[in-house]
Each structure stands twice: as structure tokens, then as C-alpha cells.
Amino acid sequence: MRGSAGSSVAELARRCVLPGFVGPECPDWLTNQLGLGLGGVVLFGSNVAGPDELAQLTDRLHRAGEDVVIGMDEEGGEVTRLDALTGSAVPGAAALGNLDDETATAAVYATIGRRLAETGVNVDIAPVADVNANPRNPVIGVRSFGAEPALVARHVAAAVHGLQSAGVAACTKHFPGHGDTDTDSHRAVAVVSHSRRTLDEVDLPPFRAAVGAGSRAIMTGHLLVPSLDPQNIATLSLATLTTLLRDEMGFTGAVITDALEMQAVAATVGMVAGAVQSLIAGADLICIGAAEYPGLVEDVVRAVAVAVDDGRLPWERLVEAAARARALAHPVPGAPVAPLSPAEVSAVASRAVRVDGPLPLLTKPQVLEFHPPNSIAAGPLPWSLAARIAEWQPEAEVVSDPAQLDPNRDLVVVVRDAARHPRQRRVLRELEGHPGAVAVEVGWPDPTPARLPTVHTFGTAPALLDAAAQLIFGDGAHQ
To answer: Which of 155, 161, 178, 186 is catalytic?
Structure first.
């Protein structure tokens, strides 16, 4: 069977697949698939050796095929691929939401967009539109602009505007909203038990704002939302992707799935069946994931052909998906937004940091820093406020265990998502009343914090850590 433009089922199916690969070199199997019309790739941290090397890699990818989509999760803040070795060059969403300056948010995302465009990436799998209604959320947290739907909606629209001003397509995620979960969908199916009314009031406004701002793509979340579909996760749900997103919300861009290698799909329906079901449901591009699966593209192509042949996947649906995939490779720059200089980024970061309570003047402090594991989405990140303090304050002593804290000394305790980590919370509560103790929360704020002066950075981007040190130590932070 061939379409009106002469495309076969195999050609159309291949156009809808976005695999990943490991390392900074394009493997032969991927070059061959791009030559056969593969839709494109999603790049991850292992693919980025540096800006020049990345530009050379994307040039090879673009030359290997036609209308190649090159996507990347570059959210800024905790999820960065461009700066995976150093920490993000810009503050993340939670810091920007705390600042609540939409002009600054647009400018930060214009800065991200310009860097991506310069390296040949044409789709940014960002911004995050999830309303982080659950402070113990294990996978969203500071990746979200906030816990208030209206605030998140405003900043999502600003982020879309900023990214697309640079000629990079925004892919807003994780539809219909991953904010109120206590499960990481990388590991299992996350359930959102909201009623349809709550979805309309809390989860969906930021996605409606993204649609209104012209987001070129939206990424699905591997979320079971019984009020929308009690049987299928959103990625595989016709009711969610077609009835809600297309018909009710009026979205006409490309729908990209979250990675099928995530356990919410791979360990349930399986990656190949999941690819077919997501196309049936209304997805246009199938993201495979960060690992390398050289044979999976052809497995998906064969499974799609069977689904078309037996009538489960309408031919018109496949043609439509392939057309959206092809169009996404050619984003058109939107209204201009000026990107930020490094000095301007630092100024934004300084304004984004929050202080609760009067900060004491510290002398020769001990510094304890907790490093809980990063989420799979973020991966390993090189951050340490303690190391910065030790550089700037030579008389500071960095300790690695709470038992080493001397109650007779000034103390700085750096925590990350303390609300999710009882040991961190316990240490902070034991310091309540200490006249020379300061807490620094670099993750999501605890809804029931300890009674301590606290600096909130809303992330670990270097500019935010610098701003925290400046607040605590003043000019001494830059000795």
C-alpha cells in the first residue's frame, strides 16, 4: 500500500520513530536508517562531547537524511544535556517560577534556544508544564515552574515564546500532567487520581497555555489518569491524545511520546506494541530512549505494517503522523526575544533565590552537604555548594557526616528535597534554635520546614549556588 505521495507503510512508519544512541559518534545503523527516511533522533548526555563536537555530530545527522528531527531534553537547571559535565548555564524552571518574571523566563529560554540552534538541534523537549502539586514528587520537583496552575501556565507560555524565537521547536511536557504523583514513570506506571474537574483546574491550564502560545510539539507522560482513561496510560490513550488534546484543546502540532524504554511502557505492554498503540492513540513521533536498540526501528516498522494491514491503525492516521513528523524538522523562528549574556544570567539567578528568616553572620563555619541520588531524568550532575564555600571561605570546614557537626560552631547544612528524605529533615530539626545555623535547600521547598534561616535556590545550577553563597557570606564569597 502506498500513500498519495507514493510513500509505503514502511517509509511512513520509519518517519515516526526517534531512537537514541550511545556516545558522541553516529553509529552506522543510525546513518543507514536516516538514509531510509528515519524521522530523526533524540540526543542525551552521552552524545555531547562539547559544543563543537555536537555541531559536527548534528551536521552528520542532518546530512544523512531528509527532514531530520534532532531533539534534546534541555530544560535548563536540573535537566541539561548541553552542560551535563558542568551544570546548567541557566537557572531551571522552579527558580524562574519563584522569581515570577515572565520576561526573564522568555529570555532564559531564548538563551537555551540560541545555543541549541547553534549546535544543530531543532527540537527542545521542554518546557515542563507539570504543576508540582505534590512536594514529594520524585521526578518533577524543581523541573516545574511551581505549584500554582496560573503561575505555571504563564511561564510555560513565556518559555515556549523564548525557545521558538530562536527557531527551535518547543515540546511541552508531560501531558496531561505529571505533577501530583509519588511514582517516577521511568520506573513504573505513575497514577494521577485527579477528577476531570481537578485536571481542568490544576493540570491542564499550562498545556492550554502552551497550545495558545503555539508550542510546536507536546510530549506525552506515561501516566494512568483514570478520569480520562481507566485502562490505558496517556501515551497509549485515544481518549487522552485525540479526544482531549486534539479535539477539545485544539492542538494541531506534533505529539511526541516520552521514551518507550521507561518501565511504565517497557515492562507492561512492551516497546514495540507500545509504539503501535501510541500511533493509534494519536502520537506522531515515537521516542525510544537513551539506550541503543539497533534492531528496534525495523521491529516497529514491521509491527506498524501489521497494524495497518489488520485495520487497527488506520492508513490515514499513519499518513497524518508522518506529515507532522516531517514538518517538525523545520521550525520557523517566532517573534524575537533577546538572549541573555552570562552576566545577565547571574543577575536573574540572584533575583530568583529566596531567603526565609534573617541570616546570621557566620565565622569559620562547618558545612555539611547532602547528595541524594538524582532522578533518572536528570542523571548525574556535578554540583557542590560546599566546595564553592570552601574555595571562597578558606576557614570553612566541609564535613561529610552529621555526627561531625560541632554544635559550638557556626553551621551551614545544604539539603536537597528534604521533604522526601527523613534523614535530612531530622538533621535540620535538631539544629532548630542554633543561633549560627543556616539551611540551604537546593531542591523543592519543604511544606513543613525546620525553624531555621533558610536560603532556597530552587536548583543546583552554578549561578544559583553562587547567588546562595553571596547571600550567606556577602563579599567574602568571592575572595
So the answer is: 186
pTM beyond 0.90, yes or no: yes
Q: What does the pLDDT look like over 70-128, one tens digit per residue?
A: 999 999 999 999 998 899 999 999 999 999 999 999 999 999 999 999 999 999 999 99
Q: Could you tell me how far CA 221 lies from the centroid of its own chain? A: 12
Distance CA 350, CA 232 (A): 44
Residue with cell 563555619: 365
Distance CA(32)–CA(23), nearest Å, equals 17
Asked if 83 is an active-site residue, the reply is no
| Distance from C-alpha of 46 to C-alpha of 24, rounded to nearest angstrom | 7
Q: Is 73 a catalytic residue?
A: no
* Residue given cell 538514509 in the structure block: 35
Among candidate residues 180, 229, 258, 466, the one labeled active-site is: 258
pLDDT at 379 over 80: no
